[in-house]
């Protein structure tokens, strides 16, 4: 009987609090297994990067690649944080100095070719056992397309690949950054997959999930756990006779070399972010639950950048104010770290009334949102540019609202700039239901920095 060990991580999101402990764990494990004659491989399933961290923002992801190299990864795939928060040119060169293979089957450029930096599948022989490995990532077409990418349906892309790999390999592995619902579905539709190393939905599958003959794994988020899959393979037939999955808490002693590397890369990122944006003669305040100057400035920049009639943004996306003096990129990043993009939607006056009344609700304002790119505490009040209304008891009525010095018209259609966060879920249903036009790759902090450059001149 031969044992093959597959270690895996997912959705680190540039949270490196546990990274040095992970390196201690993976070094010790792989060294011990090598001494025991048992081979191992190391996989990352995407969203290793997140521009919320100055290390990633300041190095444009190259710092993350150095950490992956130092850890000894064999195979990685990308998540949406790699795929849609960097420009196409940056992503095209992000992995130039990699020491691992990037596997990805469902990403193409607009000319119909796959990127040069990834391969749709790998056939790898490990001590007599042949592995067929492929990978897919979530299909956020509205975000990939403006960047110059063609992101295709993950199931359609890998169906023929899986069938081909099954004919050539002893073990078929899918690296999936699409999420647990997809992984469950594909396990039933493509039973030729032996193992799905999953991610994206941040599930903690402590012992994996078996559906038919497929084992699905996922390690949660932020590097709190590492995943360890053990495959027992009959040497004569090369058939898998047993599969086990475990999540390992990362509370080991920290690897000193790795701690130093994280510190050095963080300093490198911070140095890049010291570029001066402007010099402010006075402070700009932030109030999450009312009108204040900095969120109003962001709303104004959003309306101007998108050439819209009105803009809507939540005060909670601005995490803190600014003091008088020099303002750097790092300071803007700290107060607005979210990977959130502008977008425009066409809304009726009736839609705007609905949004205004939702936004006045205290439960809405104090909601502690997780996900959708939001990296703040609470949603906060809705802030408008180009729209105002008269407060009074009860709901806001049509006659209470002014749009660009004219009374609101319920039947009229308005071009509204807002943020992509509101296009997901059900926070503001009229925006989620409307047809959206995304502005990619600029983020809210890009717009805020752009506005601040001229605000005090």
Automatic annotation (TrEMBL):
Highest taxon above the source species: Bacteria
Annotated GO biological process: nucleotide catabolic process
Sequence ranges assigned to domain Calcineurin-like phosphoesterase in this UniProt record: 6-203
Keywords carried by this UniProt record: Hydrolase, Nucleotide-binding, Signal
Domain annotation 5'-Nucleotidase C-terminal: ranges: 287-420
GO molecular function per UniProt: 5'-nucleotidase activity; nucleotide binding; UDP-sugar diphosphatase activity
Alphabetized InterPro entries for the sequence: 5'-Nucleotdase_C, 5'-Nucleotdase_C_sf, 5_nucleotidase/apyrase, Calcineurin-like_PHP, Metallo-depent_PP-like, Pesterase_YunD
Pfam families: 5_nucleotid_C (PF02872), Metallophos (PF00149)
GO cellular component terms attached to this protein's record: outer membrane-bounded periplasmic space
Keyword Chaperone: no
PANTHER family attached to this UniProt entry: 5'-NUCLEOTIDASE-RELATED, 5-NUCLEOTIDASE FAMILY PROTEIN
Family from the record: Belongs to the 5'-nucleotidase family.
Name of the protein in its database record: Bifunctional metallophosphatase/5'-nucleotidase
Organism: Terrilactibacillus tamarindi
């Amino acid at each position: 009987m031969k044992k093959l060990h597959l270690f895996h991580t997912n959705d680190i999101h540039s949270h490196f609090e546990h990274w040095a402990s992970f390196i201690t764990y993976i070094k010790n494990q792989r060294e011990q297994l090598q001494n025991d004659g048992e081979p191992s491989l190391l996989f990352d399933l995407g969203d290793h990067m997140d521009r919320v961290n100055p290390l990633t923002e300041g190095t444009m992801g190259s710092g993350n690649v150095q950490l992956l190299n130092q850890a000894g990864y064999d195979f990685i795939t990308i998540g949406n944080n790699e795929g849609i928060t960097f420009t196409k040119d940056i992503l095209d060169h992000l992995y130039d100095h990699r020491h691992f293979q990037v596997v990805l089957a469902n990403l193409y450029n607009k000319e119909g070719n796959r990127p040069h930096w990834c391969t749709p599948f790998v056939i790898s022989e490990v001590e007599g056992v042949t592995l067929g490995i492929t990978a897919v990532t979530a299909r956020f077409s509205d975000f990939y397309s403006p960047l110059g990418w063609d992101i295709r349906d993950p199931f359609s892309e890998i169906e023929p690949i899986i069938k081909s790999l099954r004919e050539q390999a002893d073990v078929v592995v899918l690296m999936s950054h699409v999420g647990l619902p997809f992984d469950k579905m594909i396990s039933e539709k493509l039973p030729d997959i032996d193992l799905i190393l999953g991610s994206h939905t941040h599930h903690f599958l402590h012992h994996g999930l078996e559906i038919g003959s497929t084992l699905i794994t996922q390690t949660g988020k932020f590097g709190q756990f590492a995943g360890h899959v053990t495959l027992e393979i009959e040497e004569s037939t090369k058939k898998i006779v047993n599969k086990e999955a475990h999540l390992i808490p990362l509370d080991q002693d920290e690897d000193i070399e790795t701690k130093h590397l994280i510190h050095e890369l963080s300093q490198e990122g911070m140095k890049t972010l010291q570029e001066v944006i402007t010099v402010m003669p006075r402070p700009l305040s932030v109030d999450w639950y009312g009108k204040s100057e900095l969120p109003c400035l962001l709303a104004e920049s959003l309306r101007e950048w998108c050439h819209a009639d009105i803009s809507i943004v939540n005060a909670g996306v601005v995490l803190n104010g600014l003091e008088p003096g020099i303002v750097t990129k790092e300071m803007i990043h700290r107060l607005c770290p979210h990977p959130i993009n502008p977008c425009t939607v066409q809304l009726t006056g009736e839609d705007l009334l609905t949004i205004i009344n939702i936004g006045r609700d205290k439960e809405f304002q104090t909601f502690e949102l997780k996900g959708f790119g939001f990296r703040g505490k609470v949603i906060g009040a809705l802030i408008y540019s180009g729209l105002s209304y008269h407060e009074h008891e009860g709901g806001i009525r049509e006659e209470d609202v002014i749009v660009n010095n004219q009374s609101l018209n319920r039947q009229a259609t308005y071009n509204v700039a807002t943020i992509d966060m509101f296009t997901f879920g059900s926070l503001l249903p009229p925006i989620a239901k409307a047809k959206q036009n995304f502005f990619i790759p600029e983020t809210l902090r890009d717009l805020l920095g752009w506005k601040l450059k001229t605000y005090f001149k």
